[in-house]
Prior knowledge:
It is a single chain. By secondary structure, the protein is an alpha/beta fold. It has a single domain, classed as 3-Layer(aba) Sandwich (Rossmann fold). It is about 35% helix and about 20% strand. It has helices spanning about 15-25, 65-75, 85-100, 115-120, 125-135; strands spanning about 1-10, 30-40, 55, 80-85, 105-110, 140. A six-stranded parallel beta sheet has the order 3-2-1-4-5-6, sandwiched between helices. β1, α1 (about 15-25) and β2 (about 30-40) form a beta-alpha-beta unit. The protein is globular, with a radius of gyration of 15 Å. The model has no long low-confidence stretch (mean pLDDT about 85).
Amino acid sequence: MKKIIFLDQGLAAGGAEKILCTIMASLDKKSYDIHLVLTNHLSSLAHLVPDHVTVHELHKTHTRKSLVSLMKLFRKLKPDLVFSSLSRSTILSVITRLLCSRYKIIGRYPNMPSREISEGVLSGWRLFLNKTLLKRVDKVIAQTDEMK
Length: 148
């Protein structure tokens, strides 16, 4: 049985979070051991998490503060695959893989990086992390051809 971790900040109401719940619900629970790891705590979409999904809440206020807790959890769980639909969580999964475990990473990007750069959302250290670490993601899911 393959172990899959879905990584998110808190499963707050949003499109990326709803997509995580939809994917978790569509996977065969007999074939996959599914875990939802939240860097904060389970939020407004808790009712969409399927019963067969094991939820781990790290209770950290910022994603960057969850690295040590996430490394400990990943060492314990030994995932085969980590899926994230937000760039912060994807970067965190890449750093964790570099430091402690080996697993595949699938990242889904809800926004266009080129637009985030032009609007100043990605600048400084965030731009550096995105350019450097997101290249280490095994598979990237882009919503549109323009995002590729």
